[in-house]
Amino acid sequence: MSKKRDFLRKIVEDDLKSGKYKEVVTRFPPEPNGYPHIGHAKSISINFGIAKDFSGRCNLRMDDTNPTTEDTDYVEAIKDAVEWLGFKWSEDVKYTSDYFEQLYTWAVELIKMGRAYVDSLNEDEIKEYRGTVTTPGKRSKYANRSVEENLKLFEQMRDGVFRDGEHILRAKIDMNSPNMKMRDPLLYRIRQNSHHFRTGSKWSIYPMYDFAHPLSDYIEGITHSFCTLEFENNREIYDWLIDTLKLEPPRPYQYEFARLNISYTVMSKRKLLELVEGGYVSGWDDPRLPTIAAYKRRGYTPESILNFCDSIGVSKANSLVDVAQLEYAIRDDLNKKVPRVMAVLNPLKVVIENYEGSEEIEASYYPHDVPKEGSRVLPFAKEIYIDRDDFSENPKKGYFRLTPNQPVRLKYAYIIEFKEAIKNSNGEIIELRVNYYKNSKSGEDSSGIKVKSAIQWVEASSAKKAEVRVYDRLFKEELPRGIEDLNPDSLRVIKDALVEPSVDSDISDRFQFEREGYFYKDPIDYSSSNLVFNKIVSLKDSWAKKSKPNESKKEERRREPKKVQIDGEVTPMSKEEEAKFNRFKDELKLNFEVSNTLARDEVLSNFFLEALEYYSRAVTIANLVTNDVARELKQKESSHLKYSPKDIATLASMIDKERISTKIAKDVFEIMSCEGREPESIVKEKGLEQISNPDELLPIIDDILSKNSDNVKKYRDGNQKLFGFFVGQVLKATGGKANPKVANELIKDRLDSKD
Fold it and tell me: Contact at 8 Å (CB) between 251 and 218?
């Protein structure tokens, strides 16, 4: 753990020196309404770390005060996260619900003191009466109720006499306070017919965070209550409750630190729940999520997470941490630990024509700068596989791998030179014929041949087939707003990768696939008969490369000098571009950004206008061209596209007529891009037409609702956020073919019906 003296550790150190406390007791108090994420990892490392540094104790407490959102599955996920990070809580796991009786007793005491009252304003009125930061609030007329009336109403609230929202218990403090949190804060709310996962239906009222948090800290003997900065204004309530109730010392004090914000990441539980329940990810442990369970499944190590938390430090100023810093932490940790092996993700068969027999080549698992020992034997024979990207018939400048005129070294083995490329009827290379230099073996090379690169390979008969899941950042924007900023390329599954045989052994669960990145045996799907690897992180920051201008000049237009653009100014359009822009925006009713993109790109605008000749709905065609076609043109010339403007027009027509969804349209487009087939034939062959007939959808919806009766009850009890879950399940059950608009209406009808 960190030896740095951050301001929190300085506070603890001073308190111990002054004799304020004899022992440090901290706590980590998450609400069990979701899986813990990387932000929680920072809080875990602070609370447990400080307790460890000062030989104290840290409690794990579930803040289970909202039965509508909490679940035992989340409790287990939180416990697993703390243990995986290497910490152990003091005694048993604690729950705020263990203190419900004592908390209720203190609430009654506040009422008797005239410091709390039962309010009957509705939610909108409470908000209106609170005032603003510049205007004072107005106290509710119900604050004038007598102590006896308040006690009776509060007891009736507990007994389940009233409906949700009919009454609420509030502290009586100061409606003119400059700290709006102190304007008679809410202490208890009614939650009728809500089944708590521990107390069942015993309680009809539940304490609010501001009431339960400080008093639970006091019950447990917490000395230092560390919270993130958004709770800074709540500290005044924390102190008011303990002081007003005249609780005997020692008492806890709250201190705040900056929460963790990471680029290209969302950590709002609401947004994470939307991703999970909407089917945008495979679950809470999907390796693209920022949950601790997801990092664990992806292959991150506990040490890398803790080192990351240590590197960003503890401060009182909120800031945005570059996700590259987290990626560096795992890269740095694995570099010193994991064995290096060879894998071929995109195999191309190679026959070494002048090689006969077979041999075994010993190769170290670790480079010279990693102080670890270990080696394996690599089978070598006449037939091998290399990565398809390691051969080029028409290499660009700076390409140092195998070409018709350039030999290359097979790592740990021999130098080979090209002889012949075998192609299929489509002109695609399916096999290479090469020769090897017998006297060029690594470590024994006397050939005198100089090569500029060494490439990975696997021997054909001994290589193991593997599925490789290549994960990338889930969001394409540095500050993502939500699902609209999802990265469509965040997961690529390679079904037919090949790995060297030593990988399927007990040497390690994590490997560096040389020249590819760091990979992890999936802890759920991997077996000796089904090799599955998750990409943990690349060898270098690949996004840094993406952010640089593309230096390759694929088209003549990219060779032209770029117009200089000054920050705050827009490069002016030519007259021809301006005329196109006005037509696109005014006549065809395209939005500003799409019109601007098309007008400034001659290749895109020509493609768009040709597609428009086959189908007149300009908006849908324009969206396909400026998003999907434009992305393809960044990688290849327009003459190499495997589809025509007519095909794009057909695809747009199918979307507008709701024959296929926009999600399925993306899948169809990918097939068009790879195989050059017409969209009509793809949709018909694969049965991708959208299901819009209620008679087909209703049985599927009814089946899903019957299998998820608990969630149906929660939805009907008021948790309307679950609607996205049901929609996601229907889309999943239909392979994305359900018409979302029709499905939404049918699901809502079913859920709103009590039959």
Answer: yes
